[in-house]
Design a protein that fits this description.
Layout: E1 8-12, H1 23-31, E2 33-46, E3 51-55, E4 60-69, H2 74-84, E5 97-106, E6 109-118, E7 126-127
Amino acid sequence: MLASPLHLNLFVYGTLRKGSDSEMGRWLMQHAQWCGTGRVRGVLYEIESYPGFVPDPCGSWIQGDVFRLGPEKRESVLAALDDYEQCSPRFPQPWEYRREMLDINGPDGCLPAWTYVYAWPVEGKLPITSGDFLFRQP
């Protein structure tokens, strides 16, 4: 489901996913249109009780969800998500995440989507080999 020029896509892979038990995930479901599942190549790491995604065109498929942000809410939704991911001007740098536009495989093919990319070193972090944070092995 490609977004029109007035809409933006968002790809989420962790605590913001549909089916996540997080308060912010439920908030996102109320403020953006869920379009279906998607995937992107990279490595997903277990950081603490949340994941970190590092893009890699030779990596595994990382599973997530695609949301559409309409023009009336997109700036406020992205600002709230930047605060949630602690990568807004309110937080000191270096930020743990950065918001980046990536091409992802969505419900209707390849599309550009904002994605929160893990920006800190991953040495010592365990990869989530399934590529799916919601269905990771304990």
